[in-house]
Amino acid sequence: MTHSDTPVLELNGIKKTFMISQGLMKGTKPLYALNDISVQLNKGEVLGIVGESGCGKSTLAKILLGLMEPTSGEVLIDGQSLKGHKQLDISRRVQPIFQDPYSSLNPRKRIGDIISLPLRVHGIGDPAEHERKVIEILDLVGLPKRVLNNYPNQMSGGQRQRVAIARALIMKPEIVICDEPTSALDVSVQSQILNLLMDLKDELQLTYLFISHDLSVVEHLADRVIVMYLGRICEQAPPDRIFDEPRHPYTEALLGSVLTPEPGQGVPDTNLGASYPNPINPPSGCRFHPRCAKAMDICKSNAPMLQQINRSKVECHLYE
Amino acid sequence: MTNIVEVENLRVKIPVSAGMLNPVRGLTFEIKKGETLCVVGESGSGKSLSAFSLMKLLPKIADISADKMQFMGRDILKMSPSELQNMRGNRMAMIFQEPMTALNPSYTIGNQLVEVLRRHQNVSVKEATERAIYLLEKVGITAAASRLSQYPHQLSGGLRQRVVIAMALMCGPDLIIADEPTTALDVTIQAQILHLLKELQEEFEMAILLITHDLGVVARMADRVAVMYAGEFVETGTAEQVFKQPVHPYTQGLLSCIPVPGKTARGSRLGSIPGIVPSLIGDMRGCAFRSRCPHANGACHNNVPLEKWSDDHFKRCVLDDTALTSIAKEAIA
Ligand SMILES: Nc1ncnc2c1ncn2[C@@H]1O[C@H](COP(=O)(O)OP(=O)(O)OP(=O)(O)O)[C@@H](O)[C@H]1O
Ligand SMILES: Nc1ncnc2c1ncn2[C@@H]1O[C@H](COP(=O)(O)OP(=O)(O)OP(=O)(O)O)[C@@H](O)[C@H]1O
Ligand code: SF4
Ligand SMILES: [Mg+2]
Ligand SMILES: [Mg+2]
Question: ipTM more than 0.95?
Fold first, then answer.
């Protein structure tokens, strides 16, 4: 049974730990890629995720897709455990667009076959219908019909990324997990794809998880934004709150590092220092404290608790 | 200042089933010591293939020709395989668009970093390891020593990208070709890596050929900008000229596609350039942008040379000065 305000996808208290080898004969140590993460994805919304490179965004995406088992915590689809569902059923409803189109496209298959694969796997339609659908979707992502017989290595980076997008969208899934879907594209193709994603959202009531390093794109598209740092969510709010009134010092640092296309402005100083976090040996207290310009004594020893301020949720001692 | 790279009329042809593909159609450019040239442009316009041409790393079936293609005064097209080996990764290093093309999945990143330096320079494993750790920390990877024993698939996309950047810097190259070096990184790390590149550039007068779709990066890094469309440069100039007085209709279209917070309403449709790039198969005549250009006229069917517009500012467009001035004014408004 589903209820209209049950999230379509939900992560509850997810932890993911990787065991990392420390070199020959030195044993392994745990790397906490996700440390107690809860996320709800509501029907028809665009949830943007931004954050430090390596903070666990792709890991989170893989767990949502059922492609990776969490170490602990539960994943719910329409309020029911993902565990009871077959991977094939999940993939019919939830489709990924991955970060690295190079490794996600089979180099020995032609583009036409790559894009139609989901239809064949799910036994939808006949070959004639496959061809019609492939051509239709190619057109939507701005690729000419002539690429159908190409192999992935005959295409540019951005062309490959559009193939990955076409493959994900041909199934008309309900939920699309986008991991950096447009970073390989020039801005004119990017805006074409983003417009397409938004049109499909309105037409088919699609739900998106949208992971991106491009803050202006996230600001433009997202209904809600999550900022992650080292395996935790440090701030969560609607885009107008995040972008107009960032609360968490890391969010502030992120926004301060955005490069607008203004020549002569140079590259801003991030004011973050070079003490990058080590996920194998994370800092005590607030995980951001060694780099935080506003850190206080308490930040070194105690982990901050989640605070709700107006429409923002923040994990930072400044607001306690 | 000395030119590190001099290229005249670079062309790449690739035979494909439908005929002869012409992805790079006569590029002329130079890069001076300590200078940054940024190439931006349509996806599929030939940016990566041009970069591969400089390294002579094109697919075997590709035919490459140029009236001149020199690296530090030496003809790249005439280099022997061993001279090329010696140049690549050493004097001229590349950061690839897709990090997995540069990384071998079956070796640890430590092995791979040490190997690049030892292949070209007479240093001990210990010295090479120290340099690897130093550079990994510079690109923002902590506990670098413990990362050395990891395999590429155990790293996040951005970590892999930073390993590749460190690898390209191992030998202290004279020219670094960076194809989308920071798109996989968050903006704080991006800023830090760009600072690092600028630092190395100042210290060692390293030249940079930077290919990126990120117009913010271009604006902040470029000494000169080349805008590429369908295998040709359609506009070249300083960052100031190209961003503040774009003259070519393609450049203007491109600049209008960026969502600008505060200007573009949230959730509204973004500006885009209608239409798609022409096929690059077979002979082409005329301006390649004409089918998508709002200002195209009959003259656009003739071949268009890259012409001087002002000082260092060049454009490939038939429109006369008055027409271009007025559309340029419209574009910035
Ligand atoms: N298979 C794996 N084995 C070991 N460690 C892993 C594995 N996959 C990911 N990690 C580690 O988990 C952390 C989170 O990785 P993840 O790919 O989720 O980051 P991300 O937020 O997507 O980063 P990016 O923005 O760089 O893509 C990183 O420290 C990464 O090295
Ligand atoms: N090995 C190949 N065989 C056939 N065509 C190729 C091959 N490699 C590239 N191409 C084609 O050549 C053109 C230029 O490719 P290139 O990779 O240089 O583009 P790009 O400007 O780097 O694009 P992007 O911004 O998407 O990375 C593209 O249309 C591509 O499809
Ligand atoms: S809790 Fe302290 S260290 Fe952490 S972000 Fe807030 S002020 Fe900075
Ligand atoms: Mg990732
Ligand atoms: Mg490319």
Answer: no
